[in-house]
Amino acid sequence: MTAGLGLADQRSDYASLVRWWTRMRDSKPVHYDAELGNWHVFRYDDAVRVIGDHETFSSDLRSAVRQPEQFAIVARGAFNGFDPPEHTKLRALVRTALTPRMIAGLAPRITAIAHELLDSMDGRRRVELVGDLAYPLPLIVIAELMNIPLADRHRFRAWADALFFQGRGDKPVVVPTEEMLRSVEPLIGEMNAYFLDHIRYRRRHPGGDLISKLAAVEVAGTRLADEEVLGVCGFLLVAGHITTTLVLGNAVHLLATRPDLAAALRRRPGLIPAAVEEVLRFRGQLPATPRRTTREVTLGGQVIPAGEVLLIWIASANRDERQFAQADRFDPRREPNRHLGFGRGIHFCVGAPLARLEQRIALRAVLERWDSFSLDGRVRPEDVRKAIGFRVLPLEVSWAG
């Protein structure tokens, strides 16, 4: 391995990773990291090829690490980590329950929730965006969709973190170790028991909520097992927390440092959907996604054996100058904007329509209610090697009207 080019050699702040991605796209677009034992993929075209070819580049990494019992249970429905035909069946069942019409119908309620949360901080000059708005908004939406008690929401963040980060180690890893998984297995077991209780109750007493729909939906004579419904619930919990919370935080952080752009969006709110797409490209929530080769393949001039793990740097692909003109410039009018923030092909995020709706509504509400806002104090970022965004984002705000 060339010294200084591996992930473990990089500082764990966002600016350092952006510089690393730029350097690697130009000099080592497909690179073997001997310390971590995996390959890194940095360019847009290579990323599109990998995530679009599930026959050569598998999403199923279950063989890469021995899963503790509670992770194995929830993994039965985690279809984002499956390949066809398992993935096809589960995705079709979920899409039957989570329809575009149902999602579009949520707009008035999401708008009301966003303004209720802003009302709760009305008049305060200092707010903390994540705790006050970006985190509770998608959590309330998903809790209401599933008809589960909002009073339990303090437990959800720990569960979402355990599912997404899968334990935290001192050094970066591509696939979590068994030790890391075991460190958070009690939380996963708690989550499994909680959701399985609700799922089994809805089997006996169905309603109009999402859990009841997932439990009842049928495609070609097939229904989801309890553990598969559980896995989908866990996936939606993570997707809401990770996607909407982080992307909304990233959007507000960008606009806090660019008041001219915030003013432009206030004048022309019709640009807000395009601005959300540009946030997903420029500072999206997902730095990378793993794949495993099923056969020997040549990628970026490198011969990669079967059974190797690749880390596809989505955030780097979205900054690739070969695909995006002035890629390091945030441009809410960018067109076209074929970013990979929600994936591509069969693994395109099934929750993307809901996430986009939440982000557009919340950003519009913020711009309507605040005449101005700026960073106030020390932000606390997530571990950018796993998630790009903020855990704490303090702001000083000036209220409209």
From TrEMBL:
Q: What stretch or stretches form a coiled coil here?
A: none
What pathway is this protein said to act in by its record? Answer: Antibiotic biosynthesis; vancomycin biosynthesis
Q: Which InterPro entries match?
A: Cyt_P450 (IPR001128), Cyt_P450_B (IPR002397), Cyt_P450_CS (IPR017972), Cyt_P450_sf (IPR036396)
What are the record keywords, sorted? Heme, Iron, Metal-binding, Monooxygenase, Oxidoreductase
Which Pfam families does the entry link to? Answer: p450 (PF00067)
CDD domains per record:
P450_EryK-like (cd11032)
List the molecular function annotations (GO) for this entry.
heme binding; iron ion binding; monooxygenase activity; oxidoreductase activity, acting on paired donors, with incorporation or reduction of molecular oxygen
The record's function comment reads: Involved in the coupling of aromatic side chains of the heptapeptide of vancomycin.
Stored PANTHER family: CYTOCHROME P450 YJIB-RELATED, P450, PUTATIVE (EUROFUNG)-RELATED
Report the sequence similarity comment from the record: Belongs to the cytochrome P450 family.
Identification of the protein by name? Cytochrome P450
* The species this protein was found in: Amycolatopsis decaplanina DSM 44594
